[in-house]
Amino acid sequence: METLYQSFLLRIWNKASQNHLDWHASLEDPSTHNIKTFNNPEALFTYLLEVSNLDQFDINQIKGDDE
Length: 67
Prior knowledge:
Blueprint (H helix, E strand, L loop, with lengths): L8 E9 L2 E9 L6 E4 L2 H11 L8 H4 L4
Antiparallel strand pairs: 1-2, 2-3
């Protein structure tokens, strides 16, 4: 079985904007130093699911049916 490995440096921060905090994140590939930025958690999670080939994954499988 082939093993695929990816690593990223994750940075998360908030920025104040008109009486609320805007959520931001970036992922840096340590081998290439390419940085991808995200303006909301959904965009980050969608990207991670895509690069891990789990884009068809149902997040409810992690939460469980009891919640």
